[in-house]
Amino acid sequence: MSDDLDDADLNRYARQLILKGMDEAGQQKILKSKLLIVGAGGLGAPLLLYLAAAGLGDITIIDGDQIEPSNLNRQICFSDGDSGKPKASTAAAMAQKLNPRISINAIDAWLNEKNAPSLIKKNTIIADASDRPEMRDLINRLCHKNGKVMVFGGASRLEGQIATFRSGLDADAPCFACLFPDLTATSQLPRCSETGILGAITGIIGTAMALEILKQCLLPATPFGENLTSKLLLYDGTDNFMRVIRINKNRTCAVCGIGI
Ligand SMILES: [Zn+2]
Q: Which residues contact 47 (CB under 8 A, 6 or more apart)?
């Protein structure tokens, strides 16, 4: 099979192909990438749509939840009248309509200890858009063990965070548990069902996760600049504040520690 983009791809991706530093080889890397998105909610929706639009070639989205009217202020893959439908396959159908030239798989189930190992093994980048501490812990452990990239995102109220962990690929890199050492700490991250959330905030964080994933797909090339490996991006919509801080590796981390 030829590695050249056909005319339809050249037209579809024309505006990103002419960006400085991007070329057909870069687009091929994006097309050949394999991504697992955990969570088809407020973060998963913009993440899925922008990456489908950008041509990320093989996307699996997993979520065991059904659509409720209270989701519609932020979960932009869904429409009025979708209540009761499964989130993952409804979101996947919308993304597939946007870009029929890529492969999108939906799993209408929760990620768990049983299905996670094979799903994580067959993808290269895992996006945690789950909003669930136990799922984050599972994704982190398996990404570390299997040498996969974990792109984490979280949002509540008018705030959000993003970070990328490559501890399974680089012994000096931290994992998610280096940042939040135990499940008690991660469960202290507020959930939007308890604290409220504005859809524009999940839009900003989910879209920034999409950009970060494109940067990870293109490595070692860096046409889109600095990525968030071993860094935490913090965003606060109340004062338009955004900053990036470095995450240190915890040498005694229960997941990725290598001893003192
Ligand atoms: Zn760690």
A: 37, 127, 129, 153, 206, 207, 209, 210, 213
Decide: helix, strand or coil at residue 72. Answer: coil
217 burial type by CB count under 10 A (0-12 exposed, 13-18 middle, 19+ buried) = buried
- Ion ligand 1 residues within 5 Å by Cβ: 175, 177-178, 253, 255-256
* DSSP reduced 3-state for 163: strand
How far is the C-alpha of 187 from the C-alpha of 177, rounded, in Å?
12
What size, in residues, is the chain? 260
Average pLDDT over residues 32-50: 98
Ligand 1 centroid – CA 31 distance (Å): 31
Across-strand partners of 156? 159
Q: Which residue among 77, 192, 217, 253 is the active-site one?
A: 192
Please compute the mean of the pLDDT values over residues 199-224 and round it to a whole number.
97
Look up the pTM and report it.
Answer: 0.95
135 band by pLDDT with thresholds 50, 70 and 90: very high
The CA distances from residue 30 to 14, 25, 51, 104, 197, in Å, are 14, 9, 9, 14, 31
Per DSSP, the three-state class of 60 is strand
Which fold is adopted by the domain 19-246?
Rossmann fold (3.40.50)
pLDDT for 183: 66
Per the annotation, the verdict on 178 as an active-site residue is no
Domain ranges of the chain: 19-246
Q: Ligand 1 centroid vs 88 CA: distance in angstroms?
A: 30
